[in-house]
Design goal:
The complex is a heterodimer of chains A (170) and B (214). Chain A has 170 residues and is an all-alpha fold. Chain A has nine helices and no strands. Helices cover 66% and strands 0% of the residues of chain A. Chain A starts with 9 loop residues before the first helix and ends in a 14-residue tail after the last helix. In chain A, 14% of the residues are buried. Mean pLDDT of chain B is 80; it is low at 6-11 and 108-133. Chain B has 214 residues and is mostly helical. Chain B has helices at residues 2-5, 20-29, 33-55, 58-74, 85-107, 124-135, 143-155, 159-170, 175-182, 186-213. Classes of the chains: A mainly alpha (170), B mainly alpha (214). Chain A binds chain B through residues 10, 13-14, 16-18, 21, 23, 48-49, 51-56, 58-65, 68-69, 71-73, 75-77, 79-80, 83, 86-87, and chain B through 2, 33, 36-37, 40-41, 44-45, 47-49, 52-53, 58, 61-62, 65-66, 69-70, 73-74, 143, 146-147, 150-151, 154, 165, 168-170, 174-175, 186, 190-191, 193-194, 197-198, 200-201, 204-205, 207-208, 211-212.
Chain lengths: 170, 214
């Protein structure tokens, strides 16, 4: 498949790299061997990739200082006596509590905002009843009044006068 | 960050108990500092080497290597062997390296001497090497110059490509192990390394022939 293709696809290239790294199974590796035998493009590609990889050998091996282990162990012992607050066992409970608190605040806030929105924008079906409540509370009395003339007669006999010494509400 | 050292709280997988380093870590879990010291000695050079090439700073590399050991030491009492020790330590190293670079990016710190360049951008010292080479295209680059060129090519890779290359080149890790350390599938590692190799090849193409005839 590769021999007729002037350029290698990304998948082919992936396989060639894996082939160089010895990461292909036997079957796929055999297929790549056949491709390499047929395709000069593939052979050139493999050679270039291999040489690129070899170039990395010039990179120096950087070593830790000779006292690194000793210094590190000392640092670890010191650090352990000063365990960060986030590594304290109880901090996990604080962390969880903080999450619960945040959720609780968020829920309360949402409820408050929701209430405000609904009270402002959604009409209250009880609003009319509440407005007429004083009237409704004395409706049975008003129903006893047949007409205006009867009220005028009551007024004449001073029936609406408040008892002496009692002021305030009607 | 905290998750980088966390190990699943599960039953110990006996499959990893044959790993001598897991055995050392199990001893360290029981506060055996000598065992932990052996682990530090076994991995100090390996970590410093990887971090040095990844971050291009010996000082930062040593600090990060120490931070890796510090995290492992702090979490030792909860250690459960669910992977080879090397896989676990390089997973922590990878996470720390990523976080370190992110933090430095946020702080907009000035890169250390020999800092990053990208595939698109070229730093002065990089162009200096290239200029020298251009003036004398046929001469052999000496080892230091070649190191600088290869280093620049390595730094031109993105962070994940570079880490994968370093783990594969220096630690001889398989795709599976790199995937475990970098939390990727082996197929993704294969693709990542392939792109990394191709990027390196493009940058180093001119030097391959020189190196070939060296």
């Amino acid at each position: 498949m590769m021999d007729k293709a002037p350029r290698l696809t990304a998948e082919h290239r992936d396989d060639l790299v894996a082939y160089l790294d010895g990461e292909l199974d036997e079957s796929r590796s055999g297929q790549i061997d056949q491709v390499l035998a047929r395709s000069e493009v593939a052979r050139h590609e493999v050679e270039a990739l291999a040489r690129t990889w070899e170039l990395l050998d010039v990179l120096p091996r950087v070593a830790a200082p000779t006292d690194f282990a000793e210094t590190t162990m000392s640092t670890l012992k010191v650090a352990e006596t000063r365990t960060p607050i986030t590594d304290q066992p109880w901090f996990e409970y604080v962390r969880r509590g903080r999450v619960v608190a945040v959720w609780a605040i968020a829920i309360l806030l949402s409820a408050a905002i929701g209430f405000q929105i609904t009270s402002r924008w959604v009409p209250n079906p009880h609003e009319e009843v509440l407005r007429d409540l004083p009237l409704l509370e004395k409706l049975h009395q008003y129903q006893d009044v047949k007409d205006v003339e009867f009220l005028q007669q009551l007024k004449k006999i001073n029936a609406f006068a408040e008892p002496v010494g009692q002021g305030g509400s009607p | 960050m905290a998750s980088s050292t966390s190990v699943p709280v599960a039953k110990e997988d006996s499959g990893y108990l044959h790993d001598p380093e897991v055995q050392l870590m199990l001893r360290a879990r029981e506060d055996d500092d000598e065992a932990f010291s052996q682990l530090v000695k076994a991995y100090q050079d390996r970590l410093v080497n990887i971090f040095s090439h990844h971050l291009q700073s010996q000082e930062q590399a040593e600090d990060l290597a120490q931070e890796v050991f510090l995290r492992i030491y702090r979490s030792r009492h909860g250690y459960v062997p669910t992977a080879r020790f090397s896989t676990w330590i390089f997973r922590i190293a990878n996470n720390l390296a990523s976080n370190s670079r992110r933090d430095r990016g946020r702080k907009r710190e000035v890169a250390f001497a020999g800092g990053e360049s990208s595939m698109m951008g070229v730093r002065p010292e990089e162009s200096l090497v290239q200029e020298k080479s251009a003036l004398m295209p046929t001469r052999q680059l000496d080892k230091i110059e070649m190191q600088a060129v290869v280093h620049e090519a390595l730094l031109g890779l993105n962070e994940r490509q570079r880490m994968a290359v370093l783990l594969h080149k220096f630690e001889d890790m398989s795709y599976q192990d790199i995937g475990d350390a970098m939390e990727m599938t082996p197929a993704a590692v294969k693709s990542l390394l392939s792109r990394a190799r191709e990027n390196l090849r493009q940058v180093l193409d001119a030097y391959i022939q020189i190196h070939k005839s060296a």
